[in-house]
Amino acid sequence: MAQLDRYIAKNFLVGYFIAFFVLIGLCIMLDLFVNIDEFMEQSNQGMGKVLIHIAAYYGPQAALWFRHLAGIITVIAAVFSLARMTKNNELIAVMASGISLKRILAPILTLAVLLTGLQVIDEEVVIPRLASELTRGRDEVGMPRRYSFWFISDPKGNLFCGQEYDESTGMLLNPFIILRQQEPAAQRWSVIGQIDAEWAVYDAARQGWAFEKGRRMNVLPEDAVPTALTSVEPVDFFPSSLQPQEIALRRQEGYKSLLSLPQIETLLKNPGTRKTDMAELILQKHSRIVDPIMNLIMLMVALPVLIRRDPREIKSAILISFVTTTGCFIAVFLCKLFATESIGGRVLPELWVWAPVFLFLPIALLQIDSMKT
Questions:
Q1: Fewer CB near the terminus (10 Å): N or C of the chain?
Q2: What is the pLDDT of residue 21?
């Protein structure tokens, strides 16, 4: 049995790596074909520089695409290994030796579980570290980034705005900070002041922003004085854990999918996180658990269909396996699409994210149990 397991595992791994390079390469070629003009904007630097920029852009993007395609790659690898064994009539030889065809699935499922660990590492380690590169546009690769941002909250609920942040110098021009505090009784935020300056830089040693010609105005309670603002006072430093790299990430739409699970937990506990973002954060939190499970379920749904003793049936089996896998993929996509929507006045992202598991796991178990071995 050990020799048979090694043979099946070898076929599966060969199919996995072939599927990985083919699918990721196809994504790169299609995207490059559509957006080549954005890279060619820097053609005055020479074709060598353009090729370096293309590699620098699609390297991080490959990690992002792998997260979405990991389940499909595993199914294709299983199709490759089982179709090859069926074509060579090897499954008949296995049955003749008294081995159940269900036993054939053991090395494939074991390797699928181990390879799912690559997806977890990709989501929790690789993608968060590449987040700043993943937020770059195709025409921004190799160039210093300058951008504005508005109303990004720090963990204390203060709102940061900036006319322009230059990543190459680390300088924030014309920063404007709205100081807020939460009123627990009223469940709302109140403005207690504001800070503006000519420019600011982040001081990592002191964990805050250092200002040039900073000014702070404090808002007093409504019943304290007739006027809303006190006199202006100078300020040269403001403590905050909101760092420049977080600003670069959070100004992008869909940035939550680039965060690690600890980062998502931090934002969920952050009192300054907007309620409109909470559903998306909860969706991302549960997706980190559900996505690997669904990839294994898709494989379990497809595998029994691929076990065929007659080589003439393998083409229809491959078609059925891809149809069922596509059905799982579409169901997951639709459930995530509706997860942040209000239905009946309630938003239930946890229920929507786990719904495909409850739907397809019994189907997968029935499929395996009903196999003709």
A1: N
A2: 93
Rounded mean pLDDT, 163-191:
80
- Cα–Cα distances (Å) from 217 to 8, 220, 221, 237, 345, in that order, read 71, 10, 13, 14, 40
Round to whole Å and give the CA distance between 307 and 274: 50
* Residues near 56 by beta carbon (within 8 Å), at least 6 away in sequence: 133, 141, 142
Name the token pair of 350: 């946890």
Residue 288 near residue 66, CB atoms below 8 Å: no
What are the respective helix, strand and coil percentages of the chain, to the nearest 5?
A: 60, 15, 20
Model pTM score: 0.77
Tokens 């003749």 sit on residue: 96
Here the tokens at position 129 are: 């570290």
- Amino acid letter for position 124: E
Beta carbons of 112 and 299 less than 8 angstroms apart = yes
Q: Which residues contact 93 (CB under 8 A, 6 or more apart)?
A: none
Following CA atoms 227, 231, 236, 237 in sequence, which dihedral angle do they give, to the nearest 10 degrees? -30
pLDDT at residue 360, rounded to an integer:
87
Query: Which of 89, 118, 95, 111 lies closest to 8, judged by CA?
Result: 111
Instruction: Give the phi and the psi of residue 69 in degrees, each rounded to 5.
Output: -100, 0
Q: Which residues contact 25 (CB under 8 A, 6 or more apart)?
A: none
**Residue-wise pLDDT tens digits, 48-86:** 777 888 888 888 899 999 998 888 899 888 888 887 877
Query: Distance between CA atoms of 264 and 282, rounded to whole angstroms?
Result: 8
Which H or E run contains 58? helix 47-87
From residue 6, how far is each of 10, 45, 83, 87, 100 by CA, in Å? Answer: 6, 51, 17, 19, 17
Q: How far apart are CA 270 and CA 158, in angstroms?
A: 11
Nearby residues of 309 by Cβ (< 8 Å), 6 or more positions away? 86, 91, 92, 95
Q: Is 290 exposed, middle or buried (0-12, 13-18, 19+ CB in 10 A)?
A: buried
